[in-house]
Amino acid sequence: MTEPRRLHHDATVVDTHNDLILLVDHFDRRDQRDHFGTFWLPELRAGGVDVQVLPVWMDEQFQSEGALRRTLLLVERIHELGAEYSADVVVCLTAEDIDAATSSGRIALVIALEGAHAIGQEPQLVRTMARVGVRVISMAHFGRTFLADGSGLDATSRGRLTPEGVAALREMEELGIVFDISHLGIAGVEDVLHLATRPFLATHSACLGITDSHRNLGDEQIKGIAELGGVVGVAAAIPFFIDGANPTAERVVDHIERIIDVAGIDHVGLGPDIIDDYYQNLFGGWVRIPTGGEPFQPAEISRPSDLPKITEVMVRRGYRESDIRKVLGENVMRVLHDVMGRPTR
Questions:
Q1: Tens digits of residue pLDDT in 232-255
Q2: What predicted TM-score, i.e. pTM, was given to this entire model?
Q3: Which of 63, 171, 180, 45 has the alpha carbon at shortest distance from 111?
Q4: Strand positions, DSSP E, 12-128
């Protein structure tokens, strides 16, 4: 039998969603600017992470007037990390940059926007974000932006992409920015599946067929993403997306298997949505739980160092090594090679 830990650390591991920059910023403001080096860098190495997508997410107090300033400050901080820890990490603008970084033993960092609040109702700012290094963008979080409705509004408005949202999608495709469908409301998902011409990601989602959450994707949506060549990153670190009562690594692999059954082995990856330490440090626990306050257990996958547990489960279930490598990172890398930093004009 394949030795799981060896396989995991030998494979290219891509994590499409870790909110670590929020905790870095939290400790920066407390004069602990070494937090990335003392906590996150060892965690990423222990988890075998080769490529880390870093989303910039807006707390509610920044989502309107302060979004652009806050976004640019966090983007700048990611670039600073690239300079401060240049022996270990590289901010990458193209898939070829990622290949060069991982070949040199460094971790490739990819800047993303979660919710795109900084764009407001100005789709041309997508170009500005591209200039400062953003390479993955989603249009909404739980609520409404000028571009689209988030999935948290599915029980009420189910708004489609706005005209500005359609224009922003076109800008992303032209510029070689990878679209992220996670958090988008159900009507917006249908719009994107109809309008998109390039592969895209659901950076941190799971299967509605297993867990009933507005944040999860139905089988037909997963099929649609796959038909465009895209990949669903399984949100392994969010208990109420995986299974609030039993959010184990085994249950994570159940979601992986569901996506494989629905769409094939080439369309699933890892997008854990690692945010537990941020909530614990700032609030003493989870806040705004999207389950109506129902009890849940802590996720077994809560930090990067937990990621090898997923590989262990896949090995135990008899997955071929070549398929495990696809899930761990090769599938997402295919999308990045197709789109990231590759303008269409």
A1: 999 999 999 999 999 999 999 999
A2: 0.95
A3: 180
A4: 13-15, 49-57, 89-91, 107-114
